[in-house]
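Why do we bother with a discrete structure alphabet at all? Because it lets us treat a fold like text: something you can write down, compare, and reason about line by line. To make this less abstract, here is a complete entry for Phosphoribosyl-AMP cyclohydrolase. Read it the way you would read a sentence in a foreign language you are learning: slowly, and without expecting to understand everything at once.
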Amino acid sequence: MSVPLPPPVDPAAPAPGFDAATLRWDDKGLIPAIAQDAGDGTVLMVAWMNRAALDETLATGQVTYWSRSRNQLWRKGETSGHRQRLVELRVDCDRDVLLALVEQTGPACHTNRRSCFYTAVREGAEVEILAPEQA
């Protein structure tokens, strides 16, 4: 199913009326962010953002997360080249989850799969439903 794409985010344009302070950050100052392919709706991955990651994402149009393991900003694709260009950012009804509609370059998952959600549970068994992409 193809979803019409909104125009790309203009990094220079402020988000009128958006106030990140109204988001419900956890006690570590983080909020979960779901990355979804803006073209076909595939859920690609879930990661975390802090205020700096959100600000950088909105300022540059390139999705940036907060790495909890490295305790630093993680500019998606900075080393792999598998970048995410922000098409639209959405906030859920409770304001405690972000949805980033993205244009994904290459696989989103560090396992070289298009999506991090490559394992299904079917009839009580785990089934791999996406193979790694060939280099």
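What the structure line is telling us, in plain words: The helical segments are 51-60. Strands lie at 31-37, 43-49, 64-67, 72-75, 84-91, 98-104, 119-122, 125-128.
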